[in-house]
Amino acid sequence: MNTSDMTTAPDLKSWVESANAADNEFPIQNLPFGRFRRDSNSDWLIGVAIGDQVLDLRKAKLIDTIDMNHLMASTSDERRRLRLAISEGLRHGSAQQAAFASALVPQDQVELGLPCQIGDYTDFYTGIHHATTVGKLFRPDNPLMPNYKWVPIGYHGRASSIGASGQQFHRPRGQTKGPDDPAPSLGPSRRMDYELELGIFVARQNALGDPVTMEQAEEHVFGLALLNDWSARDIQAWEYQPLGPFLAKNFATTVSPWIVTMEALAPFRIPFQRPAGDPAPLPYLDSALNRAAGGIDIKLEVWLQTEAMQKSKLAPQLLTTSNYSDAYWTVAQLIAHHTVNGCNLQSGDLLGSGTLSGAAADQGGSLLELTLGGKQALTLSNGEKRTFLEDGDTVILRGYCEKPGARRIGFGECRGTLQGVRK
Amino acid sequence: MNTSDMTTAPDLKSWVESANAADNEFPIQNLPFGRFRRDSNSDWLIGVAIGDQVLDLRKAKLIDTIDMNHLMASTSDERRRLRLAISEGLRHGSAQQAAFASALVPQDQVELGLPCQIGDYTDFYTGIHHATTVGKLFRPDNPLMPNYKWVPIGYHGRASSIGASGQQFHRPRGQTKGPDDPAPSLGPSRRMDYELELGIFVARQNALGDPVTMEQAEEHVFGLALLNDWSARDIQAWEYQPLGPFLAKNFATTVSPWIVTMEALAPFRIPFQRPAGDPAPLPYLDSALNRAAGGIDIKLEVWLQTEAMQKSKLAPQLLTTSNYSDAYWTVAQLIAHHTVNGCNLQSGDLLGSGTLSGAAADQGGSLLELTLGGKQALTLSNGEKRTFLEDGDTVILRGYCEKPGARRIGFGECRGTLQGVRK
């Protein structure tokens, strides 16, 4: 059953009028899932964003659970049926309008949490422009490793320190060593950075020992959210060999509250192809469907609001734009690769895309790229300069899909603030 | 309150007679914690091993939870009081003998599971002999990275594929590329290996942003178990740069069922000192207590039983012995380092020590070391040869503490079997 055409048709309107505004990110064609609560003593509940409201799915009698991970473990048919039921109930003229209306809560009256409980978190490295630029900084002679075009490079990250949008965290301390220092020392990171990523949430699990093929892969994906993989570059440079990043990353990771489902993204699927001359993916990472529509056209943005901007009531400033279509590996390829050895992905697990930079110099998805490793400061609109993040800086990631003939949908925002060192 | 002296006194005897046999690993001085169930439809229950029995702690009215992670989150005083109550009830002449006796189950009548729910799993690299030997194989010119003696190197591992002793798993497939191959290919790993490690289970959590000092570190440790970090060396060699091991490790990791507590290990604490000429640890990784007693004298063994041995009813063969005292970083240093950036460790989280090899060539904690990267086969007692693991091989890790004036305690076993590729 393919309900995408029905639920993403551009002429669909909702009786929730805010959802019909052209600039609203959560029209009836989107219907992203998240968790909300009215106060910090209440349970997290499962909701779907519609306009400026949240639909409480249990109150609307669409589900009887408050366990998002359980819901994510449904079959893809079950998920599509639920989406269709939500869409039908929210449409203009729905007989369920009164019942659903009593299950709406204004978004600005709730707290939005992590969309689910995240068991394991894996971070990939699919942004080839990022990998190349950063590779040059760390390894001038050897920017892109020989395995890059063959292996979707990934590594395990820390689940416990992942927070929902709005996360505030202290500047981490760690060991660093300058090239001329005789010995390392402990101190606050001086090269704090963000990374613009997408997060991929796992739907149905695969059993341990049971690889997922390219053909099955997207049945195991619930949807996508924005992800900021905060990084301490000076800690990373000293610690990362030979086993990879560790304390440079695991102090905080921020995700946006709404999971935009694969069904909502269906109109924005695009062909996936390698640049001419690049090797074809090995057969376990290839499929006709992936070549035809493995990519997703998602426009991405990084915004910065410094403490001084906030005090002067200046709006955040756009730093970067890029597009997920530049990723070197697709969502399906990440799932197929991650499980080819039998590794079990569980409902609610999170995969990071890796930093999604564009090809142009001003499309870096991190300050490391935009400032050439801190060598060339950015001048902000209020005259402030940045090589890396300063205390009080708020970074906001945004993402949206739009194209002629489709209703624009958005991801909401992924916002996080770097605070000073904890005293 | 320090109850260690009372509960580890060598003359203590239990009315559970099997616990008093000199070769039993679970005398009343040990009292390790684990989870057991009578059949696969029952809940996991919390038990303590005593002789050949398990004491059901809830049935003995010592606790009212079946949630081990909740129990692990107790304060260290609470944990010590519980240990004392268990010890007193199991001692010769205890008034509680009848009540406790009804809460005993023979170990051979229960299934032993993972001791707790593992949220995040971090693997360290504290075996300097392992790091040096393996470093030579991967990087002949540069075996030990410049950071090794400064940074307790660690990386995040996969929690979902960690299994309890008895775990059986299929030989993983993965990408490999020989030095002369024009391109990589997908196939079953041909260089399957084990790694002899200890696992460190986290007790009380620290809040995100709140580092744990060296002085506080062991309050956050519940105890230790054996850990086998199965590794596919050929997959590792091709995938691991620049972000570390991933599919080479995350298909399976096996831990022993019993967590031997820090209280039980107290008699076996030893001074921790660096080899002469090595740099002193940075202050955040140093403490007087750590220098005086940061080490633990735990004797470790690797045993191998091939399928042919099993068919011929031949006992497993001892491959290696080593000692945890050779580790380059202590348990407290791993906790202090992991949290220095504010990373939050949660109750039940698992830290691997890294492969614990001894200094001698025959003390390698992996086949990679014992066979010089597969160049020199081991000849087993029945004439079979091994460079890496073959299908049907069972690897058994064992560990124990003994010294004059203390009762010998053991860790039980960590057993796992490599099966053939899944058809």
From TrEMBL, chains A, B:
Residues where substrate binds: 125, 139, 236, 240, 355
Gene3D superfamilies tied to this protein: Fumarylacetoacetase, N-terminal domain, Fumarylacetoacetase-like, C-terminal domain
Sequence segments annotated as region (Disordered): 162-189
Pathway where this protein functions: Amino-acid degradation; L-phenylalanine degradation; acetoacetate and fumarate from L-phenylalanine: step 6/6
Key words, A-Z: Calcium, Hydrolase, Magnesium, Metal-binding, Phenylalanine catabolism, Tyrosine catabolism
Domain Fumarylacetoacetase N-terminal: 29-115
Binding site for Ca(2+): 123, 195, 197, 229
E.C. numbers: 3.7.1.2
GO molecular function: fumarylacetoacetase activity; metal ion binding
Ranges where the Fumarylacetoacetase-like C-terminal domain occurs: 129-417
The keyword Calcium is annotated on this UniProt entry: yes
GO BP term, pick one: L-tyrosine catabolic process
Cofactor(s) required for function per UniProt: Ca(2+); Mg(2+)
Presence of keyword DNA-binding: no
InterPro entries linked: Fumarylacetoacetase (IPR005959), Fumarylacetoacetase-like_C (IPR011234), Fumarylacetoacetase_C_sf (IPR036663), Fumarylacetoacetase_N (IPR015377), Fumarylacetoacetase_N_sf (IPR036462)
Entry annotation: catalytic residues: 130
Residues bound to Mg(2+): 229, 249, 253
Root EC class: hydrolase
PANTHER family cross-referenced by the UniProt entry: FUMARYLACETOACETASE
Protein name, per record: fumarylacetoacetase
Lineage: Bacteria, Pseudomonadati, Pseudomonadota, Betaproteobacteria, Burkholderiales
